[in-house]
Design goal:
- The chain starts with a helix and ends in a 9-residue tail after the last helix.
- The chain is built from 18 helices and 5 strands.
- The chain is mainly alpha-helical.
- It has 3 domains: about 5-65, no CATH class; about 80-180, no CATH class; about 200-485, Hypothetical protein af1432, CATH 1.10.3210.
- Helix 8 (about 205-220) packs across helix 9, helix 9 crosses helix 15 (about 345-360) and helix 13 packs antiparallel against helix 14.
- The protein is elongated, with a radius of gyration of 40 Å.
- Strands 4-3-2-1-5 form a 5-stranded antiparallel sheet, with helices on one face.
- Strand 1 (about 410) and strand 2 form a beta hairpin.
Length: about 475
């Protein structure tokens, strides 16, 4: 082999390599010097000059580059976070279902006519706070960081918030259920009133259902709830008053064996005592203490009107008509409308007259003021001592006590609580301080973590000082113990 042949081969290889490198460099140079390359540099210079003079750089970049913003990718949630997200949406849904509840909001017609019992401001506040809490906690979850460990740590906090929301939701549901039952009773009784006032004969079975509900409350040991309604709406006002009569009667009638035998009819009679008041609504619904002159005669006429209506509607239940006619009679002959005296008044009517005086004096105060339960019972006992009312039946009311169960009270040491029960004893007639109270706020104004049960029987201190109005109950107890503020 000739030595010069490898040299020739190496020379060809070198020449080929140089040619290839030149071919690679030339397209780049040409592209940079082409029209597109010049346009690129010009565009870049224009953009740089605009950025120097502009305040909103981001908008200029978007407008000049014509490229859309890169969307933020959603956070990959852990399984625990996804579970909380689903649970939070369920809680929001349950709260939304309560948004139009009678307890929290009312329709325009109900606001205009003031229908329904008074709602509790504390419960309305609780609903709004709970809704805001649930919404805030739910919005936090999609904004969790990417880190799984951080998400799990935040999930523990959100889960605790949802537990509080669930507890509050149970309180709201219980309050709504209780209020709904009350409004159903009122509506049923108003419907029966309308049938009677129209001259028709209602089915007594509907009355029995209401009476059974009241007796069931007594058997279950439920608190005594007094319904309040604006006097501008006679049917609902009379229905609330009738239900209050019936509830007191059902709680004290058991002390007499003869009365207990006819308890169904006696409690039914209590529901209709003042039905005649609806007929004289043009003269205004006013309390007996405010009646003078011509209005007194108009007020007395409700007894005759009510008796005639019930006689036609329930001919097989004469006690209902008799009670409507004579429930304002006094055994000393000073009552109305007939001025019956002594033995002319039957024992059942004497018993109903005592309960009627008590309820009328309890409800004589306005809605914004506390119930006068103590002064009402005191005045009934004084009337019995003066010979106006039956002394034996008047003492039956001691079973209800000066402060009925469910009453919010202030004690003599400055603490606040709710009366749970009023146990009977053989010394009940002389005892005025035998309540069992759940203390919710201490003397220094601090709230207890849980209620403290205090039996006042036989103690000289503390004692119940006074009742709290509903507004005071909302402000002083409702915010911290809304579950005790449902009624």
């Amino acid at each position: 082999m000739n030595i010069s042949e490898p040299q020739v081969l190496l020379g060809k290889i070198t020449a080929l390599r140089e040619k290839l490198e030149k071919a690679v460099r030339e397209p780049i140079s040409n592209s940079l010097m082409s029209e597109k390359g010049l346009e690129f540099f010009a565009r870049k210079n224009r953009l740089a000059s605009k950025l120097e003079d502009a305040d909103e750089c981001n908008s200029l970049i978007i407008d000049e580059s014509k490229s859309p913003q890169t969307p933020r990718l959603p956070v990959q949630l852990t399984s625990k976070a996804r579970e909380l997200l689903i649970h939070g949406k369920e809680l929001i849904g349950e709260l939304r279902n309560l948004a139009n509840a009678f307890l929290l909001y009312r329709t325009d017609d109900e606001i205009a006519s003031k229908k329904g019992t008074q709602e509790s401001g504390a419960l309305l506040k609780l609903y709004r706070e709970t809704t805001a809490m649930a919404d805030t906690a739910l919005r936090m979850i999609p904004n969790f960081p990417e880190s799984p460990s951080s998400q799990l740590q935040l999930c523990a906090g959100v889960e605790a918030i949802f537990q509080v929301i669930s507890q509050r939701l149970r309180i709201l549901k219980q309050a709504c259920t209780s209020k709904e039952k009350e409004l159903q009773k009122i509506s049923k009784l108003v419907d029966i009133f309308e049938i009677i006032l129209s001259g028709s004969k209602p089915d007594f079975l509907g009355v029995q259902i209401i009476v059974e509900d009241i007796l069931e409350e007594v058997r279950n040991g439920e608190t005594l709830r007094f319904l309040r309604e604006d006097v501008d709406y006679p049917a609902r006002y009379v229905a609330c008053k009738g239900l209050n009569f019936a509830r007191v009667v059902a709680r004290v009638i058991f002390q007499d064996a003869q009365l207990r035998i006819a308890s169904m009819e006696i409690i039914a009679a209590a529901l209709f005592l003042d039905i005649g008041m609806i007929k004289i609504q043009e003269s205004g619904l006013v309390e007996p203490e405010r009646i003078h002159g011509k209005l007194s005669r108009a007020y007395e006429s409700h007894c005759f009107i009510g008796a005639e209506l019930l006689r036609e509607s329930f001919p097989q239940k004469p006690l209902l008509a008799e009670a409507a006619l004579s429930h304002h009679e006094n055994i000393d002959g000073t009552g109305f409308p007939s001025g019956f005296k002594g033995a002319e008044i039957s024992p059942v009517i004497r018993f109903l007259a005592v309960c009627e005086r008590y309820i009328s004096r309890c409800m004589s105060s306005s809605i914004d003021k506390p119930l006068n339960t103590k002064s009402a019972l005191t005045s009934v006992l004084m009337d019995s001592e003066d010979g106006k009312l039956d002394k034996v039946y008047a003492r039956f009311l001691l079973a209800v006590s000066f402060y009925p169960s469910g009453t919010a009270v202030e004690l003599s040491d400055g603490s606040l609580g709710v009366v749970l029960a009023n146990p009977l004893s053989r010394f009940t007639e002389i005892e005025s301080n035998n309540q069992i109270v759940a203390v919710l706020r201490e003397t220094d104004g601090s709230y207890l973590p849980k209620p403290k049960i205090l039996d006042l029987a036989g103690k000289t201190s503390p004692a119940v000082l006074r009742c709290l109005s509903q507004n005071e109950k909302d402000d002083l107890i409702g915010s911290e113990f809304p579950e005790w503020n449902s009624h």
